[in-house]
Amino acid sequence: MPNPFPKALARIIYNRLFINIQINNILVEEQFGFRTSSSTAKAAFQLTDEILNALNYKMMVGGIFCNLQKAFDCVNHNLLLIKLEFYGIKRTAYKLIKSYLEGRYQRVVLNNMSFDS
């Protein structure tokens, strides 16, 4: 049977971060992920609405789309810790996240070349 402790700990950290993010109004309105009452469906609706409005006014519409599914895998851990501290994540929550990230590394493979950090 899997150990439920890591999931419970992750949920506690998530809740603490989420409260901090809400209290300090850190996320912009256009941020759809990681928010209550928001979803990818809302993001798709807003995008479609903006495109249709532009087309109705005979405006040119273009788009660039990026798959950010694995975006966290590319985050610089030191920079993330600096930003967490800047946004008020300190003491126990900060230490937990730091200990989770320490000793981990990232690897990006592009055209059969790997880049480690």
Please characterize this protein's 3D structure:
- By secondary structure, the protein is mainly α.
- Helix content is 49%, strand content 7%.
- It is extended.
- Radius of gyration, taken over Cα atoms and rounded to an integer in Å: 19 Å
Strand order of the largest sheet: 1-2
**Largest sheet features:** 2 strands, antiparallel
Per DSSP, what share of the residues sits in E-state strands of 2 or more residues? Answer: 5-15%
Q: What level of helicity do the residues show?
A: 40-55%
Number of helices: 4
Number of strands: 2
Mean pLDDT: 84
Poorly predicted parts = none
Structural class: mainly alpha
Concise description?
The protein has 117 residues and is mainly alpha-helical.
Which key phrases capture this entry?
117 residues, mainly alpha, two-stranded antiparallel ribbon, 4 helices, 2 strands, extended
Question: Could you outline the blueprint of secondary structure elements for this entry?
Answer:
Elements: H1 5-23, H2 40-56, H3 77-86, H4 91-101, E1 107-110, E2 113-116
Antiparallel strand pairs: 1-2
Helix pairs in contact: 3-4
